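Reviewer 2 asked us to include a model.

Predict the structure of this chain.
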Amino acid sequence: MALPGYTTAMKATVLPAYQQLSTSEKLLLVEEIWDEIAQNPDDLPVPAWHKAELDRRYQAYQQNPQEGSSWTEVKARLLGRK
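Predicted model (structure tokens):
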């Protein structure tokens, strides 16, 4: 999916040394970019379908709060303790 105003050539234009970076260096760069973006969470738009899904899930929870698993139970399953 292409974003408005973004082209694949943008990497070469904005970050000329991008292609010379190792994979671990690219990951560090992405982390730095994300950390900067995360400093202003209000600048990130939340799509309407995300809000609708959150509303749907919250409504399902309100109708039956005992259904599902607690975070402790989920974490234990993921870590192989149960």
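The mean pLDDT is 86. The chain is about 55% helix and 0% strand. We have added this to the supplementary material.
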